[in-house]
Amino acid sequence: MEIILLERIEKLGAIGDVVTVKDGYARNFLLPNKKALRSNNANKKVFESNRARIEADNAARRTDAEAAADGVNGTQIVLIRQSSNAGALYGSVAVRDILDALHAQGVTIVTKAMVVLERPIKTLGVFDVKVALHPEVSVTIKVNVARSPEEAELQSQGVDVMADMFEKDEAGFTEDYDPNAEPGDIAAFMDEAPAEEA
């Protein structure tokens, strides 16, 4: 389906571009959200007569987004989650979790549609997440997923908590190893003198 874009859409085009997209994408997303018009003679005339107003509205929204970007860019949020010993989360971190954490920090300008999360976060660590405040203005926030506030603090300083845990011996148990032992022999008994039989 041919459409006329009413705002800049990443990987498609800018305001006023006539592009061809799949019918479902146009019918289910672009047209209902007023991001595009069907490309026909009547709509082309309507667009051209309103082009100056559409571009002025877009410029005003972009200016507001650029002003808000300073308050959002570089924001760091900490999410405490349970995970396995290997660092895999029980569940995942989704857009709603990030949005709730931002709102708790007082960043209320961000909406669910603005958070661009390619795939859910399923491991511990620090992740960069893109927030598109406007089609032409995007910022990056840091999402720190940890098991405790202490781990979150270490991760924010650049420490890989999972790698550190595996490097040091957490068990505190080391077994003596005898390279000459036969299978089934226990190292602790090999050091003792054999008991004399009566």
Describe the structure.
It is a single chain. This protein is elongated. The chain has helices at residues 23-30, 41-72, 95-104, 149-156, 161-167, 187-190; strands at residues 2-5, 18-20, 36-38, 76-80, 88-93, 115-116, 121-123, 125-134, 137-146. It has 198 residues and is of the alpha+beta class. The mean pLDDT is 83. The strands form three sheets. Strands 4-9-8-6 form a four-stranded mixed beta sheet, with helices on both faces. It has a three-stranded antiparallel beta sheet with strand order 2-1-3, covered by helices on one side.
Task: Record keyword descriptors for this entry.
single chain; alpha+beta; four-stranded mixed beta sheet; elongated; three-stranded antiparallel beta sheet; 23% strand; 198 residues
Brief summary:
The chain has 198 residues and is an alpha+beta fold. It is built from six helices and nine strands, in the order ββαβαββαββββααα. The strands form three sheets. Strands 4-9-8-6 form a four-stranded mixed beta sheet, with helices on both faces. The chain has a three-stranded antiparallel beta sheet with strand order 2-1-3, covered by helices on one side.
DSSP, total strands: 9
Order of helices and strands: EEHEHEEHEEEEHHH
Quote the average pLDDT.
83
**Helical coverage, percent range:** 25-40%
Shape: elongated
Tell me the strand order in the biggest sheet: 4-9-8-6
Q: How much strand content do the residues show?
A: 15-25%
Unreliable stretches (pLDDT < 50, length at least 5) are none
Quaternary state of this entry equals single chain
Number of helices: 6
Broad structural category: alpha+beta
Radius of gyration: 29 Å
Biggest β-sheet strands, sense, barrel: 4 strands, mixed
